[in-house]
Structures are given as structure tokens and as C-alpha cells.
Amino acid sequence: MSLLTVAQYLCGRTGIPVPDSVLGTTDQQVRQVLRLIEEEGNDLSLRGLWSGLVLEATLTTVATASQGAMTTLASNGFRYILNDTIWDRTNKLPVCGPMDAPEWQAIQALTWTGPRYRYRIRGGNLLITPTPTAGYSWAFEYVSKNWILGIDGTTYKQYFTLDTDTILLPEELVLMGVRWRWKKEKNLDYAEDFRTYETQVKDALGRDGGKPHLHMDDEGWRGPVPGIFVSPGSWNV
Fold it and tell me: How many angstroms separate the CA atoms of 150 and 32, rounded?
């Protein structure tokens, strides 16, 4: 749904005259709906790990400890990195971390020549030890704060700039969230709407993006292993 579609639905649902446009309108009620949609989107984006907001970043290493600012490396609205996702694709090895301050300082004080790279994010920069060789190809996944997508399909935003902007979060939750927020602003009873909304958010987060199987044993790797694979089915013998 686009911003205009969401606003028109909400206005029709709450008895506000349905607008032909949202951005640039002088109607104070429509402008309030716009801000409530943005407030709901920003809050909902922080509620959990929404698959629509998980993106991948790639970088080419430089021969310094700092590989640059995270907001530059992950330029599409970087919010936080996902642990255990940094991989050195050149050497086919994971980059360990994140390290905490005592561990980082201890390694800086000692001679560290281990075969595996480690990382720390400090001051918004990605720090690597030992200093990597320039030209390696690395990649990682991160969560973006940009929950809005432009009509061109490539421009991500945190706030609306066009009526045609679409929402990357579950639209039904955004509608429910704005509904109780609007009632709260008008000093109306919103308790039941809020309760239903909270239940739906928890259910949606539990289903979003699919979930891996939980294993109670010590086997951590569930990917391919060496061996002979025989496809199931009927065979002529």
C-alpha cells in the first residue's frame, strides 16, 4: 500500500474527509494522520527483526584497522549489524566478533598474528584486527531503519517524501497501530485496539521471514556435508 492509500483508508475509517493527496496538504487532520503513520512505522521497525528491513552490504578491504564508517559501508539506513554474518569471501572464512572494549585493548597491547580476523564497531566505524590485506571481498547483513520504499523500487527512506511511497512493514499492523494512536490523540478509549495490536505484532514477528528449526543437541551446523547424495524416487535396476 502507498502512503496515499493508507491515509485514505484511515481517514475513511475515522470519519475524516478522504484526501486526494497527503504531502503538501493544508488539512490539519490529514497532516496529523501523516505524522501518526510515520510515528507508527518508526516504532514498529524497532519492535523486532523484520525480514523486509534486513539488507546485505559488501566492502573491499583496505590495509588499515578502520574499514570506514558503518553508515558508509552499509549506506541504506544502517541501524545495526547482524552478528555472525561478516564473511571474508576471498578467503572463505568468517570474521569473528564483535569484540568488547577489554578484549580489543588486550589484543592491541599484544602481538596478534592469528589466522582469523576479528572486528569491533567503535565510534560508528568498523575496526579489524589484524590489519587486513587490501582488496579482499567481505560481506555482512544489517538491519536498516528505512522502512519506506520509493515507487522506483530502489530508493529507501525513513520518512515519506511522495504520496506513492510504499511501506516495507506489514501494512495491516501499520493500519492497526495508527488506529489506536489516533484514538489516543483524540482522548478516546483505545485499550482494546491497543491490546489487539500488540497481540498481532507478536504473532507477526513470530512468523516473519520463516524460522529455523530448533535443535536440542550439540550439532550446530546443518548445512551440506561431504558424502554421496542419492536422490529419492524410483530407480531402474
Answer: 22
C-alpha cell at 232: 529419492
d(CA 144, CA 149): 12
Distance, CA of 43 to CA of 40 (rounded, Å): 5
DSSP class of residue 214?
P
Q: Where are the alpha helices (DSSP H) in 2-138?
A: 3-14, 28-45, 70-73, 101-109
Q: Name the maximum alpha-carbon separation found in the chain.
A: 78
Place of cell 578502520: 66
118, 97 contact by CB (below 8 A): yes
Q: What is the pLDDT of residues 116-175, one digit of tens each?
A: 899 999 999 999 999 999 999 999 999 999 999 999 999 999 999 999 999 999 999 999
DSSP 99: -
- Whether cis (ω within 30° of 0) applies to the bond prior to 98 is yes
- Residue 37: closest CA among 181, 153, 193, 199: 181
Global pTM reads 0.84
Spatial neighbors of 218 by CB under 8 A, at least 6 apart, are: none
List Cβ<8 Å contacts ≥24 apart for 210-218: none
The confidence score (pLDDT) of residue 104 equals 92
Mean pLDDT of the chain: 91
SS3 content of the chain, % helix, strand, coil (to 5): 35, 20, 50
Dump pLDDT digits (tens) for 155-170. Answer: 999 999 999 999 999 9
